[in-house]
Amino acid sequence: MKGYKHIVQYYETDRMGITHHSNYIRWMEETRVYYLKELGWSYERLEEEGIVSPVTAINCNYKVSTTFADEVEIEAFVAELRGVRMKIHYIMKKQDGQLVFEGYSEHCFLDKEGKVIRLEREYPGFYEALKSMLEND
To answer: What is the sign, positive or negative, of the torsion defined by CA atoms of 85, 63, 30, 94?
Structure first.
């Protein structure tokens, strides 16, 4: 799947001209939304189906700073998919290929009432789409 591209905006930088660390977490979400839409499971569709997927953990490893107007290529892979949990691995690189960030987000799946959803049984199409993004496949 084609990588997601983000161009660093001026407002995302701090007084030193460096991208503020919190923005990388936003870019993780942008990328996740993009990939799910590409898989045919947009957030709109998930909400229509009654699926919510809250973030349960975030891990961030900052390697090299980015600055205004840098193009950041972001790839995302499903690192783990078991039961009711999913872990997504993110790799962010500058346009020259230099690694700037690596991290992951963990999610669970719930219905609108907050009850746990077992995707493989209750939403096999969504489960198979996520499985297609598994890092080791």
So the answer is: negative
HSE-CB at 74 with a 13 A cutoff on CA atoms is 28
Backbone angles phi, psi at 96, to 5 degrees: -90, 5
Judged on CB neighbours under 10 Å (0-12, 13-18, 19+), 62 is: middle
Q: Which residues, listed in sequence order, are joined to residue 62 by a DSSP beta bridge? A: 101
**DSSP secondary-structure letter at 64?**
S
pTM to 2 decimals?
A: 0.93
Q: What is the 3-state secondary structure (H, E, C) of 72-135?
A: EEEEEEEEEEECCEEEEEEEEEECCCCEEEEEEEEEECECCCCCECCHHHHCHHHHHHHHCCEC
Please state, in angstroms and rounded to a whole number, the distance separating the CA atoms of residues 85 and 10: 35
27-64 pLDDT, tens per residue?
Answer: 999 999 999 999 999 999 999 999 999 999 999 999 99
Single-letter amino acid code for the residue at 50 = G
Average pLDDT value over all residues in the chain: 95
